[in-house]
UniProtKB/TrEMBL annotation, chain A:
Domain of life: Bacteria
Organism whose genome encodes this protein: Cytobacillus eiseniae
Pfam families: Pyr_redox_2
Keyword Transport tagged: no
Protein name per Swiss-Prot or TrEMBL: Sarcosine oxidase subunit alpha
GO terms assigned for molecular function: sarcosine oxidase activity
Top-rank EC class of the record's enzyme: oxidoreductase
InterPro entries documented for this protein: FAD/NAD-bd_sf, FAD/NAD-binding_dom, Metab_Enz_Cyan_OpOx_G3PDH
From TrEMBL, chain B:
Keywords linked to the UniProt accession: Oxidoreductase
Domain 2Fe-2S ferredoxin-type: 17-99
Protein name: Sarcosine oxidase subunit alpha
KW Oxidoreductase (keyword) present: yes
Keyword Oxidoreductase: yes
PROSITE patterns tied to this protein: 2FE2S_FER_2 (PS51085)
EC class of the enzyme, as a word: oxidoreductase
GO MF entry, a single one: sarcosine oxidase activity
Its EC number(s): 1.5.3.1
Length: 413, 110
């Protein structure tokens, strides 16, 4: 008999499984990738202390800890449906149906695509795809690349590609349009980079981050932004150039790029072709929440959290009894926050399962730890993350806690 | 050689057993426990299939199972994601084919 099914063996799922197993619950973790770790596997960056954050080692550590607690981790298992039947959750997978009283959905995030002409050519990939090919599979994605999209995720992975000796020739913006939105407007891009400058990948941006809080200075910076870009560890970041088309016959041969003004408008006659054999599209991350939707969970669109997120409380419950969420499905944040949320969800499940003892204390500590880790985070994908969190928790209070109290009052009365 | 053997932080990639598989009737070498997409890219193969309707070439896009762009036929089973499937010794992998669209072709020829 399984007590808890965890969907997703990333930082949130593994941490959640560990907390469940420590509380005495029989736990299974399923994941469709070939090994556990989720997006932790690709992560590799130098911490301010000079030590390296090595996602593969972190994954191995979490996996071993879970397995030592007899958590059953099954890879290569894809979930296609989730439903409640006779007080139990049935999780339908390509390897058969599993059932348990509790399910933790920790499916993480996916990348927003930015479609542009030629983007289906072999050699075009999401920036995360290049990360996995490089750090997990250790296969070169190409000899000469162009990144389309300037954001924190793109810079972090650029750094990883450079470490592995993969040559990225330049970073340009996507062409402004309904699908690229603010990512195609130099002023907006510089603003978002400024807001995230805590972790700025280059000293230029770190320095600039403080200066450019002022709108006037920022507009000036865009106006005088060097035509040849600002080098990020050798790769020019071209905020005044936009990709209009990826060209190639059978695979990527180059990118047609045009100069743009500060608002992203193309300057006629400025087009030229940059050669490349691979292109990475960096559109940013959104919570991967289909399974919560399939299960019947209500959703709210919260841009500060990266998109549509399932309703959930700070202790990671959803409105559906027995269904919990943790990690990037609740909003885009770092892997460390995901782990802390996973631990919270694990203790929350244990409490709901009637485990007594110190579980209340553990749960309170875990909630506090999420806040602490969030405050200390070096990587902030969405600068207004705290506002987003506040919104979703306030909504929970409004929709579920108050109602429940009223209901209880009626019952007692 | 398209593999990243030495890495300044992650170290030297471990020695893995080599196996062989075929893709569109050609034999390739792969490492044990790697995905079909990784093995093919290491062999310089980017095109995994052609679009069923238009016939245009496609490769992997997201590399983690969401986008379905890398679907191939594995041992006669269609629509298998190359980015999530571990390659096995003697595995037979094939790209899909362009499906006939007689009406469209007729319209094009008019």
């Amino acid at each position: 008999m399984t007590d808890v099914i965890v969907i997703g063996a990333g930082p949130a799922g593994l941490a959640g499984a560990i907390a469940c197993a420590q509380s005495g619950l029989k736990t299974v973790v399923i994941d469709e990738f070939i090994k556990p770790g989720g997006r932790l596997l690709g992560q590799l960056h130098e911490k301010p202390s000079g030590e390296w954050w090595n996602g593969i080692k972190e994954s191995d550590r979490l996996t071993k800890e879970a397995q030592d607690l007899s958590v059953n981790i099954r890879c290569g298992v894809s979930v296609y449906n989730l439903e409640k039947e006779a007080n139990k959750w049935s999780v339908h997978t390509n390897k058969g149906t599993l059932s348990a009283s509790f399910v933790l959905i920790a499916t993480g995030a996916a990348e927003y695509p930015i479609p542009l002409p030629g983007w289906t050519l072999p050699g075009v990939m999401s920036i995360g795809a290049a990360q996995v090919m490089t750090n997990v599979h250790r296969v070169q994605v190409g000899k000469k690349g162009i990144i389309i999209g300037a954001n924190i995720l793109a810079f972090a992975i650029l750094n990883e590609l450079q470490l592995a000796g993969i040559h990225v020739e330049r970073i340009v913006l996507p062409e402004k349009g309904p699908l690229s939105g603010k990512a195609g407007v130099p002023n907006e891009v510089l603003k978002s980079l400024t807001d995230a400058s805590k972790l700025a990948p280059s000293s230029f941006l770190r320095l600039g981050g403080r200066l450019m809080k002022s709108d006037g200075l920022r507009k000036m910076a865009i106006k005088f932004f060097p035509k040849n870009g600002v080098k990020m560890n050798g790769t020019p970041l071209l905020l005044r150039k936009a990709a209009v088309e990826i060209i190639g016959d059978q695979q990527v041969e180059g990118v047609r790029v045009a100069d743009i003004d500060a608002e992203g408008k193309i300057i006629l006659g400025s087009e030229k072709i940059y050669e490349a054999d691979f292109v990475c599209i960096a559109g940013g991350l959104y919570p991967l929440a289909e399974l919560a939707a399939v299960a019947g969970c209500p959703f709210q669109y919260i841009p500060e959290l990266g998109g549509h997120v399932p309703h959930h409380s700070e202790i990671m419950e959803t409105p559906l009894d027995g269904l919990f969420v943790a990690g990037n499905i609740t909003g885009i944040e770092s892997g460390k926050v995901a782990m802390a949320q996973g631990t919270t969800a694990g203790y929350s499940i244990a409490k709901r399962a009637g485990k007594g003892g110190i579980i209340d204390d553990l749960l309170q500590q875990a909630v506090q730890n999420v806040r602490t880790v969030r405050e200390q985070a070096a990587i902030q994908f969405h600068p207004e993350i705290n506002d987003g969190r506040k919104k979703i928790y306030e909504q929970w209070e409004e929709l579920y806690t108050k109602k429940q109290n009223e209901y209880d009052d009626v019952k007692i009365g | 050689m398209n593999r990243i053997i030495n890495h300044p932080i992650l170290g030297k990639s471990e020695d893995r057993k080599r196996i062989s598989f075929t893709f569109n009737d050609k034999t390739y070498e792969a490492y044990e426990n790697e995905t079909i997409a990784a093995a093919l890219l290491a062999n310089g193969v980017r095109t995994l299939r052609v679009h069923e309707e238009s016939g245009t070439p496609r490769g992997f896009y997201c590399n983690i199972g969401h986008c379905m762009e890398c679907r191939v036929t594995v041992n006669n089973q269609v629509n298998i994601r190359a980015c999530l499937t571990v390659v096995e010794n003697n595995m037979i992998v094939e790209s899909g084919k362009q499906h006939p669209n007689i009406v469209k072709r007729m319209v094009e020829q008019q």
